[in-house]
UniProtKB/TrEMBL annotation:
It comes from the Bacteria. This is Protein DUF721. It comes from Candidatus Termititenax spirochaetophilus.
Amino acid sequence: MKNILRRLLGGDLRLQEALALSQLKNSWTQVAQNNLLHIQPYKYKNKMLYFQAKSAVAGYDTRFFSQLIIDKYKEFCPGIIIREIKIDHTGGMEPDTPEEHKTAERRICPVCGDKYFGGDSICVLCQNKRDAKIDAKITAYLNEAPWARYSDILADFPQTEETRFLRIRLEMQEETLFYLWRKPDEKQAVKYILLKTGLTPDKINDNIIKEQLPKKLHKMIYE
């Protein structure tokens, strides 16, 4: 089952990894806590997070902090699974900028009052809570209108990034497909196609259903 889903959603999984990497990079300053800034995350693939280090020595020393990094990311990015840390390159970190030095300063979060590192206006934990509320609202929106595109939600969620919308839609698409393999259902099949194509319900016909569903799944539901 997992292999089938991986083949079907290969492109989507690559996009999900790219979105996850963006979140991991944005949270790195607070995960590092000014102690591990000699390394930087630069690739996330197959649930493995790859780092580049300023030197071979720095890369070697980081091996002893791998589990700490994973545990910290569980706190700041709970929706992303990291099975292993790897130091893939050394001597290739991007140079520091004045803005990056600012992110290393300790601040007080105006929401919870805790101290944190980073250049954002609030700490990552409070931002995660805020994001979770927005994600829930977008999910509810897509449950009502699975065909919705990014431009459709801007009136209700004007500050939502397109990458967030795409991530939520892809996750719903993956979950719906997984459900269909376990419990074939015509209504859920149509929902999956609406999420996948962005077509409105009046555009869905037998040919589109047959084209968009995996052959085996189509046979399980309609034959």
